[in-house]
Design goal:
This protein is an alpha/beta fold. It has helices at residues 38-48, 59-74, 91-101, 111-117, 124-132, 160-170; strands at residues 8-14, 17-23, 28-32, 53-54, 109-110, 145-146. It has two domains: 8-74, Double Stranded RNA Binding Domain (2-Layer Sandwich); 91-170, Orthogonal Bundle (Arc Repressor Mutant, subunit A). The strands form two sheets. A four-stranded mixed β-sheet has the order 3-2-1-4, sandwiched between helices. It has a two-stranded parallel ribbon with strand order 5-6.
Length: 178
Amino acid sequence: MVGTPADGFALFDTALGTCALAWNERALTGVQLPEDTVDGLRVRALDLHPGAVESPPPAHARSAAEAIAELVDAGERDLVDIPLDMGDVAAFARDVYETARRIPPGSTSTYGEIAAEIGRPGSARAVGRALGANPFAIVVPCHRVLAAGGRTGGFSAGGGVTTKMWLLAREQAVLGLW
């Protein structure tokens, strides 16, 4: 899957490890959590954003990287104000991402609750698939979305469910409704 076209991308460090973000002139076009290696992360960023050039980020992307690092480092920062370019995101996934973005740090929701909130009750699995393809990991906080009954559900970023639980612990999440 190829993401939204990006002008550039950069790697940046967090308490979780090295992350990547890609941008255009007005917004982020993608965020990736750590891979097994920094080279693997760089390759993934280029695969998702062909033609993007690794370069120092402009002010809006630098600010986003700092906010992401602050959330990962301290678990308290809300990232809802970071502009995202969802121009290539399907309408259903956009609805899921916009709903997930409203889950504050330290809180959780479920796939079914998001499905109901977007007016698509019964589509919890589709919500899970949309979040599994989330091109804005952590900014669209898919780690805050659980399966029914408080089960962890999946997590497609590097480290899988272990990373999801690490992020929730960092945020001192209450594993329940938001």
